[in-house]
Design brief:
The protein is 44% helix and 3% strand. Strands 1-2 form a two-stranded antiparallel ribbon. About 3% of the residues have low confidence. Belongs to the ARPC3 family.
């Protein structure tokens, strides 16, 4: 079966416009953005799609072609629109990855609050990505009820490895987004004060 996926480039401008409109109270009823990868056939762990990622980090995620947008591109593109929402209807396994990635971006922005230069930001986010973190089934994991606990040690290892790859790829690319010209973007840092779905990662 052929699956047609909307290129992320076609929704990038719409997402930016959507973000600006959402900052006006009269339009907060507009729907959140979902992953375009929900229909992509992929391995699954804990209800999360193990999606291709453009990264050199080792793990269960298959490599994504360099010229093709991946889930990390989606997360970064849609973050500022989606983070304003307290509710999000999950429409597929890729949406769970989108949610986790959005929460991790929020954590990264909080870490960068007092950071003043790109070099320090790179160091801080690289460390944040590899620090010990909770996975589904842990008491401190914030998405219990939305992401199921692993049913085996192998599944736990798979989701931990995938989340680690995802975190490293987000951390690496987010620095360029927040420091596009060497100076920290207020347009990004504003959203560090928002909580997507009223949830956040502690680490």
């Amino acid at each position: 079966m052929l699956v047609f996926i909307t290129p992320i480039s076609l929704i990038r401008a719409e997402a930016v416009a959507h973000t600006r409109s959402l900052l006006r109270p009269s339009t907060l009823e507009m729907p959140a953005y979902h992953s375009t990868l929900n229909e992509l056939q992929s391995q699954e762990a804990c209800g999360c799609a193990i999606l291709p990622i453009k990264t050199r980090a080792r793990g269960p995620a298959p490599p994504a072609p360099e010229g093709q947008d991946d889930i990390v591109d989606e997360i970064l593109t849609l973050f500022r629109a989606n983070v304003l929402f307290t509710n999000f209807e999950i429409k597929g396994n890729a949406d769970r990855v989108l949610i986790y990635g959005t929460l991790f971006v929020h954590l990264c922005l909080k870490k960068l609050d007092r950071c003043t230069n790109k070099a320090d930001a790179t160091r801080i986010l690289q460390q944040t990505a590899v620090d010990s973190f909770a996975i589904p089934g842990d008491s401190s994991f914030p998405l219990g009820g939305l992401v199921r606990a692993p049913s085996s040690a192998n599944e736990a290892e798979t989701i931990r490895g995938f989340f680690k790859q995802l975190r490293e790829a987000i951390a690496f690319r987010l620095v360029d987004e927040v420091f596009p010209n060497g100076e920290k973007s207020k347009w990004w840092m504003f959203f560090a004060k928002r909580k997507f779905m009223n949830k956040e990662l502690s680490r």
